[in-house]
């Protein structure tokens, strides 16, 4: 096995170990695009453009990962989204 292959194999193993949690936002028929965008900017530290893209994906695909990271960081963010009336969960 060459040195290049060994390094690539090590990188692939490291990626599997570093699995992070995700906040998944789900579509609903209640909240407006503007409201969802505002909540994503305020809660997930999105830029307005990022939040708009996520809201469009949620609308057409039914769900979208809006934030990844450690569970301890995501839990209060997801709670804020839920308190704001959005449908979200940590996976």
Could you characterize what this model shows?
There is one protein chain. Helix 2 packs antiparallel against helix 4 (71-83). This protein has a single domain (19-90), classed as Ribosomal protein L7/L12, C-terminal domain/Adaptor protein ClpS (Ribosomal Protein L30, Chain: A), CATH 3.30.1390. It is built from 4 helices and 3 strands. The chain starts with a helix and ends with a strand. Helix content is 59%, strand content 19%. The model has no long low-confidence stretch (mean pLDDT 90). It is of the alpha+beta class and 91 residues long. The relative contact order is 0.22. It is elongated and about 55 Å long. The longest helix is centred in the first third of the chain and has 15 residues, at 3-17. One of its GO terms (biological process) is protein catabolic process. InterPro entries: ClpS_core (IPR003769), Ribosomal_bL12_C/ClpS-like (IPR014719).
What attributes characterize this protein structure?
Ribosomal Protein L30, Chain: A, 91 residues, alpha+beta
CATH class: Alpha Beta
* Biggest sheet strand line-up: 2-1-3
Helix/strand/pairing class, anyone?
alpha+beta
* β-sheet strand percentage: 15-25%
Low-confidence stretches: none
User: Would you identify the CATH architecture?
Assistant: 2-Layer Sandwich
Tell me the overall shape: elongated
What's the pLDDT, averaged over the residues? 90
Alpha carbon gap, first and last residue: 37 Å
The secondary-structure element order is HEHHEHE
Q: Kindly state the percentage of residues in helix.
A: 55-70%
Number of domains: 1
């Amino acid at each position: 096995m060459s040195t290049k292959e060994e390094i690539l194999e090590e990188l692939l193993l490291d990626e599997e170990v570093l699995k992070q949690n995700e906040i998944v936002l789900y579509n609903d028929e209640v909240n407006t695009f503007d409201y969802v965008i505002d909540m994503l900017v305020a809660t997930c530290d999105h830029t307005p453009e990022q939040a708009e893209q996520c809201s469009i994906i949620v609308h057409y695909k039914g769900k979208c990962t809006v934030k990844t990271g450690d569970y301890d960081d995501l839990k209060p963010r997801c709670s804020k989204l839920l308190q704001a009336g959005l449908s979200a969960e940590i996976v």
